Amino acid sequence: DENLDPRRRQRGLRTRDFQSASRSVSIPSLPQLLARVLVRLGIATGQLGDLEAAESALTAAVALTDAPEPLLELGMTLIGREKWQDAAATFERLAAHPASETLPAPGFDYELALCHARLGDPQRATVHLERALARDPLRRPALALQVELAQGDTAALIGAKRTLLASATTDDERVQLLAEIGDHWREQPGDPARGLEAYQQALQIAPQ
From CA 151, how far away is CA 180, in angstroms rounded? Predict the structure, then answer.
């Protein structure tokens, strides 16, 4: 009887402790472990500049797990390779993933805006870009893309560059943007004074 034999009782307690610990600790399955290794391999090869090998490793990782991290890394790698259609499909899938909000930077509207802009669909790009800027109004790549998409619409272009100006980090960039804003205003019929104002602001920033 275990209760009568202290050694048997001790062995029984150790067995139960081990079984309890096994139930409380989630041990990844082999496919999950392989996926993690493939993600690390993909990141490492990408950092070394081999984006083709990175894409292969990350594609294999995505096939092994439904976790969102491999999709994110694959999407960024596809953007790096300028495979815009595949990247857009990957970020659409990621945006619909139930666990995507757990990622460090949730929301993939900027990436989708960039993909659709490069695919020649400015309307879809603008929809995603507005969502991205609603989430983070000062996100620099999104603001730069806003300027790009505003080409051909002078009023929208001036507004986009004014927004970019508000987040500029160097005097060189501020002077450049103000000079460009001045040029756009000067091209606008009937309001050259706004162009002069922008030029004067640029001169106030520039070193004398």
Answer: 13
Q: Are 182 and 202 in contact (CB under 8 A)?
A: yes
Q: Give tens-digit pLDDT for 124-162.
A: 999 999 999 998 888 899 999 999 999 888 888 999 999
For the stretch 69-98, pLDDT in tens is 999 999 999 999 999 999 999 999 998 888
CA 43 to chain CA centroid, Å, is: 15
State the sign of the Cα–Cα–Cα–Cα dihedral 172, 176, 181, 183: positive
* Residue 23: partners with Cβ closer than 8 Å, 6 or more residues away: none
Q: Residues 40-66, buried b or exposed e (16+ Cβ, 10 A)?
A: ebbbebbeeeebebbbbbbbbbbebbe
